[in-house]
What we know:
By secondary structure, the protein is an alpha+beta fold. It has helices at 48-56, 72-105, and strands spanning 24-30, 39-45. The protein folds into 2 domains: 1-68, no CATH class; 70-107. Helices cover 40% and strands 13% of the residues.
Amino acid sequence: MQVHNWCHQCGKVWWEGQPGDGWLFIEISRGPGDWEDADYVDAMFCSQEHASEWFLLPLPEPEPSVPYRLTWLERLTGLAFASAVGSVVALACLGLLTAVRFLAQHP
Ligand SMILES: [Zn+2]
């Protein structure tokens, strides 16, 4: 999703950190019902009056959605995390088994 930091009706710029009093942000989706496949139009307005003026005009064409693809670093990170979780579970089971055996041999 691309965020535009200016009023889409008058061009007034909204700076990061500036109070957002009176500013409006809208997101319009268009697509086949499933939000993951929908196209989105994002727009920002300095006032409700400018938003309503903008809605009187034909809507711009939405930007086509681009499917997200994992990078190799993200895949390696996921694999390392899954391996770490699997190791913790395996060691916990081994510890529990050892404790049960110890208690069975030393009542
Ligand atoms: Zn405006």
